[in-house]
Every structure is written in C-alpha cells, then in structure tokens.
Design a protein that fits this description.
four-stranded antiparallel beta sheet, 20% strand, alpha+beta, single chain, 37% helix, 401 residues, 15 strands
Length: 401
C-alpha cells in the first residue's frame, strides 16, 4: 500500500476486530505526534514509490498481510485455536524445537508441553487473560507492563523462545543477547572521535502484530509444508507473543514478556544488516542495544548530515524519539548507554544523568530532503531483500551516510 504524495499518514492494521481491516489515517499533526509516554515521534512525508510513514517501510514489508487476515477471520482468541487444533499445535511445536533442545528434554518433552497447553486452556474456563497487565511509572515515564500467566510464561521460555532463537541475530545486535554487556558493545566503537546515537520510540509497542506474524511465517517457510498449518502456527504464536494496546488499537510486543527482546532483535535483522553494510562502506561502526542505535567514527571531523542518513532509514519502519537523538564530536568525554568514555576507558554511570549532559539534535537537522531523496533513489519501488539476504552492491555512491 502506498500513501498519496505530499501528505503524512499513520498506518495501522487491526486484525483483532471483526472483519479485519487495513486503514490509512491522516495524522492530526503533520510533523510530530506525542506518544503516551510524552515522547514526540516523527511522521515523514510520503515519497513516490516509497511506502508512506512507518509500518510499511522497505526493509520490513508487510508481505503476509493476507495470511494474517485469513487467520483472524476464523477466530479472535488464541485459546479457541488451541482448543480446536491442540494436537496439530502440539505436534508442530515439538517438531520445530531445535534438536539439542529436544534431546535435553529427553522423554518428557511431549508430556510437559501437553500439561502447559492444558493449563492455558484452563485459563479460558477461569475467564482469565493470558497476560496480567498494569501501568507503571519507570524513570519518570508511564509504561504498559504485561506479564504472562505462569503457564504461558513457561510455554514461551521452554518452547517458543528456542524456536525464535533458530532465526539469525545480527552480529552487531548486542542488547539482551548472551555474552554481551553495554561495556563490551561500546568497546566496538573505540577509539571515538564522532558518534551519533538515537532511540526508537516505544520499540516494543510499535512492533505490531503484522511484523510479528511475518517473522514467524517466514521462519517456518522451509519447516512447515502445509500452508494452512503454517498459517495457524504462525498465527497462534503471534497471538500469544503480543498484547492489545487500546490507545493505538493494535496488538504489539508486550513489555514484560520473556521473549520480547529476543523476538525484536531477530525481527530487526534486515535493518541491522542494511545499517551495518552502509556503515562499513563509509568507514563507520554500527551497533544496536535493543532500541538504542549507535553509529561512530574514529575521525573528529565527520559531517553530521552524512551520518544522520541512518535515522531516515530506520524511521521508515519505526518512529524515532526525537528528544533522544544525540551527536557528539571531538569532546573530552562521550556519553553512551549509561556509560562515560574517556579515551579507551569505559565507566558506568547513571543513564539518565549521562543524557542530561547532552543536548538533543534539532529535529529540523534530522529531517533533511537529502535523506528522503536517498530512500527514493535506493529503494526505487523494488522488492526488498528477504530476512538475512541483504545487499547494497552497486549503491556505494548513494549510501545514506
């Protein structure tokens, strides 16, 4: 779907309602919109041949919207699917488990899964939701917290997470991944002369249901031959991996789930790959710590406009917190991921205090015509690469930064 040129749009998919719909709604404020936590979010003007706004960007296209609609046209409740197709779900989940995980569970893997699925079905009889939900103020912001019920939590950790981990996680993605700490991630950027850092706005909440379904459906492409079963398993896992947000009227990743970070990290792979390739071609370093993106150079005279092209690429898919975009260059102390960097020494400090020492980049300096033109030139309406198959060969002269 493409939005008409010259207007700004916010696009969402509502597949939880009867007669699933895909709506395109003009944003009330054409330049900025304030999220529920008070963070302003950019909505870009649409460009001919380029999907408008986020949720339909070139790097994470909604390739399987029809399959998601078909799934939810039959049912709205994942427990109803489980009740009617328990044996298929049980058999398929066991087959999808990595071999080493199957062996480690020995002979009780099927029995254990049966118990967990029965416990989930019991929630329906008890009229309980899959997640316990509440709002909580964290670091001055109100967060929507969603904690899975015990049976669902065990199912997600013991069965769903190993399946998710079969998908590739980019080498430059470190947050929440085994063997990495913020300090180790930041060491990839030494020595520092210039650095751009920015945050995604409400990353999990903006990882909506279509992104999650596409991830699972793509992951099962060579693992489940039957298309209907593939759709049912992807739909069921999507339903138990997401929660419904009433303010945005769409389901998305929950804050508080044991699988949200690893799922988000792997779903983000195509964007990681494009940013990494672009950085290498320009002599830059790229890393991501969950929703915090860092791009750096050892030189102290890099043009900020050349580096900030990375922002325009990311926000074709996800909104950027414009009050959390920082550019630091040729300074005695750098502040990143709650750490202070002096020379090659990295020391931990309070993350909020470190950002208090920085002045956010002017949003008008971020949204440049050069960035928008770059997306137009590179994308050109062609089908983007599949997950894990990204290449920018021949585009060296038109890289965003």
């Amino acid at each position: 779907m493409y939005a008409p040129s010259g207007r700004r749009f916010r696009i969402f998919v509502d597949c939880m309602s009867m007669g699933s719909r895909l709506d395109v709604i003009p944003s009330e404020n054409p330049d900025l919109e304030i999220d529920t936590d008070g963070t302003p979010t950019i909505f870009l003007s649409s460009v001919p041949l380029v999907p408008g706004a986020y949720f339909t960007g070139p790097w994470l296209p909604m390739s399987y919207a029809d399959e998601l609609v078909k799934y939810f046209s039959e049912t709205r409740n994942p427990l109803e699917v489980l009740e009617s197709k328990k044996e298929i779900i049980l058999k398929t989940l066991l087959e999808l488990l990595p071999l080493d995980n199957q062996l480690s569970m020995l002979d009780n893997k099927q029995e254990r899964l049966e118990v967990l699925l029965d416990d989930l079905l019991a929630l329906k009889g008890e009229r309980k939701h899959l997640y316990q939900r509440w709002s909580q103020r964290i670091n001055g912001k109100v967060r929507d917290i969603s904690i899975p019920q015990d049976s669902l939590e065990h199912l997600l950790i013991e069965y769903v997470k190993p399946i998710i981990m079969e998908a590739p996680c980019h080498s430059q993605c470190h947050g929440g991944e085994q063997g990495f700490s913020p300090k180790k991630s930041l060491s990839r950027h030494l020595p520092l002369g210039t650095v751009l850092s920015f945050d995604l706005a409400n990353a999990f909440k903006n990882t909506h249901i279509q992104y999650v379904f596409d991830f699972y459906y793509t992951l099962f492409e060579n693992k489940i031959e039957n298309r209907e079963i593939r759709r049912d398993i992807a739909g069921f896992l999507t339903s138990i991996s997401t929660v419904y947000y009433s303010d945005t009227q769409i389901s998305a990743l929950p804050v508080g789930s044991p699988i949200s970070i690893c799922l988000f990290n792997r779903l983000f792979y195509p964007i990681d790959e494009v940013l990494h390739i672009c950085a290498l071609k320009k002599g830059l370093r790229y890393t991501r710590w969950v929703d915090d993106i860092t791009i750096s150079a050892k030189e102290t005279n890099r043009n900020p406009e050349k580096i900030c092209g990375a922002i325009s690429m990311v926000r074709r898919e996800f909104p950027i917190a414009v009050n959390k975009v920082f550019f630091q260059q040729n300074v005695p102390e750098f502040y990143l991921l709650g750490h202070k960097i002096i020379g090659n020494r990295i020391t931990k400090m309070n993350k909020e205090k470190s950002k208090d020492k920085l002045v956010p980049l002017d949003p008008e300096c971020i949204a440049t015509e050069r960035e928008i033109e770059w997306i137009h030139e590179v994308y050109m309406g062609e089908i983007p690469p599949n997950q894990g198959e990204c290449s920018l060969e021949g585009l060296e002269e038109d890289l965003p930064f």
